[in-house]
């Protein structure tokens, strides 16, 4: 039985801040940072945007892309590490605002940057078991980085929604298989009540990102007996531009394969939306029959790998919702003070 | 800070999230916020729920420079009356550069935070409007 993507939708706030503007405040060298991180600017939410509003915009784009009856959606799972409430689901807000309520199950997912792909896997299981008709998996974040912390140069805002189903005639892309690699690796965390996450610095690299991404990717290719050359495109979690570029090289994927999905240079790291945004950008330009290899990473830590084949249906509905490139175009640049206000870093009594 | 009881907001939540109003099938009049009875047809009216597209135009607007408590961080912001394409008008924030807003400007709906009851209370979500032409945002 096939399972795959029935529709997808992305959302990126219109504001951006350049690395130069952040570096100027903290006395850092913007040139070194841009070259090292391979990030030039990042998306900043408006003052009235949070992970819930971003999730709703992405979900509505996904529903309108196929013009489907939202009442068919039997599960809404929103992955984020910046859910606006500590207790109270974001997913109920999304379900209500997309017209999917009341006959559905809903829950919020957390797994650092891969909560969204974990939600995709949950939807795949529910759809293929016959428990639900369609499931909606969302990765959305207004990512937090403490003032002056290295994360501040990349922690961005954005979200992506995927509607998962198993009726072959409806699929824009078949998910051939998924494979996960998970260990308890404390490379990144945020304690209850704390406004900003902490991380293990360089420890997030080898034992965190690279170990889990490469093991998940190799595991899936072994399982499917595929090689990097069998794929037209590849997407790896993009906390910056350097990590996915290096992971691709380690695994044998080319720069050309990862180029369409490598949106982090202009977007920043949208955390739960990161890998999913890369897949959406790739779907925006993939042709029927193209194969996409994707691996998400979440600190803490785990990797979720997916093997995806695009179907003929993609050409019918691709233009019915904003493409990632359109969402990245014509940004409004803000300075550090405005960014700090938008992110709530300035407390108004 | 918005002080509103949780049930009071919840009762109007669907209308605020999804612009759900009502329509009188007898006289073809549309209502937002929703009316349970058609004021024209009275008991002859046939009211049904109706989800508005949210597309409309700015009838009039004002720019707020001195905000109420809880909205200080948003000044200057635009409040306007939007006439929906189906007929009814409503008051909403219009998210755009105050220099670019103009009467007759086409707008479309977006989902945003309307406010919150301080640091501990509920967060209120609903519909605001942005210019149809993104360069005016």
Précis, in short:
The complex is a heterodimer of chains A (349) and B (137). Chain A has 349 residues and is an alpha/beta fold.
Please state the CA-atom Rg of chain A, rounded to the nearest Å: 19 Å
Task: Give the full name of the CATH homologous superfamily of the largest domain in chain A.
Answer: Thiolase/Chalcone synthase
Order of helices and strands of chain A: EEHHEHEHEHEEEEEHEHHHHEEHHEH
What is the percentage of strand-forming residues of chain B? 35-45%
Principal-axes geometry of chain A comes out as globular
Report the sheet with the most strands of chain A, covering strand number, pairing sense and barrel closure.
Answer: 9 strands, mixed
Biggest chain contact: A-B, 22 and 21 residues
State the helical fraction of chain A: 25-40%
CATH topology of the largest domain in chain B: OB fold (Dihydrolipoamide Acetyltransferase, E2P)
Please give the domain count of chain A: 2
Low-confidence stretches of chain A: none
Highest CATH level, the class of the largest domain in chain B: Mainly Beta
Total individual domains of chain B: 2
Task: Summarize the structure in words.
The complex is a heterodimer of chains A (349) and B (137). Chain A has 349 residues and is of the alpha/beta class. Chain A has two domains: 4-171 and 317-342, Peroxisomal Thiolase, Chain A, domain 1, CATH 3.40.47.10; 174-314, Peroxisomal Thiolase, Chain A, domain 1, CATH 3.40.47. Chain A has 13 helices and 14 strands. Chain A has helices spanning 19-26, 30-37, 51-66, 90-98, 115-129, 205-224, 242-251, 255-258, 264-267, 274-283, 314-317, 324-328, 336-342; strands at residues 4-11, 15-18, 41-44, 73-79, 105-109, 134-142, 157-165, 173-185, 188-189, 198-199, 233-236, 291-298, 300-310, 332-333. In chain A, α3 (51-66) runs parallel beside α4 and α6 (205-224) packs across α7 (242-251). The longest helix of chain A is centred in the middle third of the chain and has 20 residues, at 205-224. The radius of gyration of chain A is 19 Å and the shape is globular. Chain A starts with a strand and ends in a 7-residue tail after the last helix. By secondary structure, chain B is mostly beta strands. Chain B folds into two domains: 6-10 and 54-136, Beta Barrel (OB fold (Dihydrolipoamide Acetyltransferase, E2P)); 20-52. Chain B has two helices and eight strands. Chain B has helices at 6-11, 13-18; strands at 20-24, 29-31, 47-51, 56-64, 77-84, 89-94, 106-116, 123-131. Chain B has a five-stranded antiparallel beta sheet. Chain B has a three-stranded antiparallel beta sheet with strand order 2-1-3. Classes of the chains: A alpha/beta (349), B mainly beta (137). At the A-B interface, α3 and α4 of A face α2, β7 and β8 of B.
